[in-house]
Every structure is written in C-alpha cells, then in structure tokens.
Amino acid sequence: MTGRVEGKVACVTGAASGIGRATAIMLAREGAVVVATDIQEGKGRDLVAEIEHSGGKACFLHHDVTDEDQWRTVIGEIGKRYGRLDILVNNAGVGYSGPVTEMSLELWRRQMAINVDGVFLGVKHGLPLMRQNGQGGSIVNVSSIAGIKATANVAGYAASKGAVRLFTKSVALECAAAGDRIRVNSLHPGIVETAIWDSMLNTTEDGSNDRPRGPTLDAAVGNSIPLGHKGTAEDMAAGVLWLASDESRYVTGTELVIDGGRSIG
Fold it and tell me: Would you name the residues annotated as active-site residues?
C-alpha cells in the first residue's frame, strides 16, 4: 500500500534525529507534505534535502518546543504556506536517569518543559488550524513505555511520559465532544536505539552526562525484551503512520505500545 497519507500536511517536532527523523521520512514517502521542526538546524536541513531527493515534499523550521511564541510562529507559517494541518506528531523529547535524590530541580524542570509543556503547546496551537478545514485530523503524542510501567532511576522521565499519556486521553475526549473529527493518540516506544537511550544509559562516546560510561544498549537490554531485540526508529515510525492515516479512523484516546513485549514481560 502506498500513498497512505497522500495530500495531507504533517508537522513533526524533534524531526532531526531518531524517531522524529524516521517518521518524517515515512510520512513524506507515503505522500504527506512534511514540516520538520527541531533546534538542530544542520540535521534538520539535511533531512529535508534527503526527503526532496527521494521525491517527497518537506520544509524545515527551527523550533524550540518549550517556547510558546515559537509555536505561534510555526503554526502560523504552516497556515500561511499550506492553509491546513492534518497531522501533528509531538515527538520532541529528552530523557535523563539517576536516583531521584540526585536529580536537580533544573533537570526535572527541563524534562517537564520539553516532554510535557512541548506537547501541551503543540496541541493548544495546532488544534485551531487542524479544525479550520473541517476534515478532521490526527495528533500523535510520543510518550514511552516508561509512562506505563515504572522503572527505577528514571522518575523524572517516567513522570513526564505518564503526563503525556493522560493528557492525550483528555484531549481525545475534548475533540470527540467537539465533533471535530480529530483523533488524539499516544505512542509508547520501548527500547529503541536513539539519543534518549544513549543519554539515560550514558552509552555515548563523550560521556556527556558526567557519569561513568554505561553498558551498550544491547547489553542493557539483556533478556528483558520477550522478542529478544531492541526496536528501530522505523518500527516506531510505522506506528505513527498508522495512527496518522485513515486506517485508524476509529481509534482515539488509545496508547499504541511498540516495545517487543517488554511492558508485559
């Protein structure tokens, strides 16, 4: 099947790398015009070049999701260029680990600002434009299995992703009551080789979070995933594509868990 989101306009935050990048590429491949946003200018523009080279349509906008004025600018630019917004993927996020007693208030607030405030602002400012065309739409908020199943030493991250999970359900009910045909769902990735997991495990070469370098992701996974291996960004993007497409037209307020069975194992 091709053209699953043909003619739709999609905004993907945190699109320069990881799940956001894979999602932007997949949505463009399936016919959407993709507005990729991120604070990483170089990687963001490289992404757009790759999409266009493959025959897709995309543009890049610099975007700090914690800044409400920047959200106004981004949504305003989408409205000016395309006149509509059909798909909003609130993907931008960060993750930090460590004992709660050692977590600074600054780090706690940073996680909440990006992971929770960024999603709230995206929905707040994206919904009015999505409602304008009267044809409905799809919002996908990227949470985590950490927002469903508790894990030690990621209390701040888990709290932020749990907030996204229930925020999503509440907004889904609001949209259903409004009869605007906009569906709102959350995606819950498991262990995927992305920058967030590098940060939490400190598997990066530079050891940028000031802790001793941790085990590789494969070593950390061990036998904790029933299917026996970590996921890929493309696995997660496939889930976003389904939620964004009309194939999931009867799905709202749900949580799509893609974790190889880890949350039930």
Answer: 157
Query: Taking the mean position of all CA atoms in its chain, how far away is CA 32?
Result: 17
- Locate 97 and state its tokens: 């680990």
How many residues are given for the chain? 265
Q: What local confidence, expressed as pLDDT, does residue 33 receive?
A: 98
- pLDDT one-digit tens code per residue, 108-123: 999 999 999 999 999 9
Give me the sign of the Cα torsion angle 248, 89, 153, 221: positive
- Classify burial at 149, counting beta carbons within 10 Å of its beta carbon; exposed 0-12, middle 13-18, buried 19 or more: middle
For residue 70, report the phi and psi dihedrals to the nearest 5 degrees: -70, -35
Task: State how far the Cα of 48 lies from the Cα of 66, in Å rounded to an integer.
Answer: 23
Q: Which residue has the tokens 């016919």?
A: 31
Region 208-229 average pLDDT: 68
For the beta sheet containing 137-142, the strands, ordered from the edge strand earlier in sequence to the opposite edge, are 57-62, 33-38, 9-13, 87-90, 137-142, 182-189, 255-258
pTM over cut 0.85: yes
The yes-or-no verdict on residue 64 having pLDDT over 60 is yes
